[in-house]
Amino acid sequence: MIFDALRKLRPARSPRDRRPPAPPRAADGDVLLDAGNVTKSYAGADRELPVLEGIDLQVRAGEVVALLGRSGSGKSTLLRCLAGLIPVSSGTVSYRGTPLTGANPGTAMVFQTFALLPWLTVQQNVELGLEARGVGALERAEAAVGAIDLIGLDGFESAYPKELSGGMRQRVGFARALVVEPDVLMMDEPFSALDVLTAENLRGELMELWESGRFPTRAIMLVTHNIEEAVLMADRIVVLGSRPGTIRETFEVGLERPRQRNSAAFEELIDRVYRTMTGRPKEPRVPGRPEPAGPERRTYTNTPLPTASVDGLSGLAEMVAHRGDRCDLADLADDLVLEIDDVLPLVDALDLLGFGEVRGDDLLLTRVGAAFAGADVQESKTLFAEAAMGAPLVRLITTSLRQNPSGALRAGFFRDLLAHHYTSEQVDQQLETATDWGRYAELYAYDADPEEYRLDEGAASTPR
Ligand SMILES: Nc1ncnc2c1ncn2[C@@H]1O[C@H](COP(=O)(O)OP(=O)(O)OP(=O)(O)O)[C@@H](O)[C@H]1O
């Protein structure tokens, strides 16, 4: 309503207004965004590291599309490619049939961290997007007031971000995106920095606006790591696999709005998505290389260490042991109010160590996993040392140290090896895990100064 009123009020465009004339309103089903065979790589130590591969995705008017995937699967990268904020490495992204050559004129972004300028008031922050497009002061002010009203911020126009709660700051983020009336509103984990109740409230208001038709956008794209949020909000859920990010599965939600969280259909869909995300990903296919005939040997290049501490994975193993060595993963995460992103690396770690495996919806402890969960500290260290030698990076560090006469090696040596295959953030994460695991297993010790691994004194008795 407010935006309708705003449209009527809108003064003639100022001569400085550099915005292209608004395209006609897209009809439901019209393709707004079209990604064709998109790949994206980032520069690594000596080559490009693939993040997205072979992405074909269309976003149509009238729909809410959620992108789900494990941490690092490339969700934000894909969103940024679609918004034209970063260029694709190959393939095309089109907006209303025209390939992008820069920022997408039909999108605006809401960020997890709000991205507000602290020295500007709410009103000035909201006007920013319009100012960049050369919109005149009067029109800017009126449009900002409309967006501020729509998103429930009226009364806060002259407040500075530091005076606002997290929820109100994110409302400013929404108003700033909506004020440009983008065809597609893009949201990168917009609720994940907010407390549960604030997130729930804002999510609900947003969906009410969307359903009421008062929203000035024709489609929404949402990046989230929260399966329930995706099922609550989206018409279509696209699940990305990792390394590189490919579309693993697409779910049509098809549930009536407002969605009933405790309906059987809602829960069934959550379970299906959960299963897709917890199931073992297929080994990444390298273009041009034939599929391996048998299971590929695990190496540090194809099997990264999950970001899971010994304490975390032991805790999960103990909880599964308490439930009879087998439990429904989604139920467990639900009972503990854990995000899937927190659980998955622990599950991956149990799997990599041979302590657990996922079958359908369930996580099972293996025989050795059950023994590990029930062991005293010394036994658990022995079992862990044996299992950790099956983790390629831990084995690499241990055998390299054993073969080095001094029994010591700079962390930089392993950092350099990993940098050929992983981004620097992933290298740091993996070395952190390898340090934690190796120390606990008493395979090796690590000195932060001068960043050096050395064989643990008790290493002679540890497995080869
Ligand atoms: N500018 C960059 N330069 C180099 N590597 C990058 C850059 N941006 C992202 N990456 C890497 O690309 C991979 C995908 O990152 P991206 O943020 O797109 O994933 P994501 O699925 O959104 O992850 P998360 O859920 O953790 O936010 C990660 O390994 C990340 O470290």
UniProtKB/TrEMBL annotation:
Any GO MF annotation of the entry: ATP hydrolysis activity
Biased composition regions of type Basic and acidic residues, renumbered to the chain: 277-299
Domain ABC transporter span(s) in chain numbering: 33-267
Keywords noted in UniProt: ATP-binding, Nucleotide-binding, Transport
Record InterPro entries: AAA+_ATPase, AAA-associated_dom_C, ABC_transporter-like_ATP-bd, ABC_transporter-like_CS, ABC_transporter_ATP-bind, P-loop_NTPase
UniProt cross-references to Pfam families, sorted A to Z: AAA_assoc_C, ABC_tran
Superkingdom, natural source: Bacteria
Location of region: Disordered: 9-30, 277-307
PANTHER family (alphabetical): ALIPHATIC SULFONATES IMPORT ATP-BINDING PROTEIN SSUB, TAURINE IMPORT ATP-BINDING PROTEIN-RELATED
Annotated protein name in UniProt: ATP-binding cassette domain-containing protein
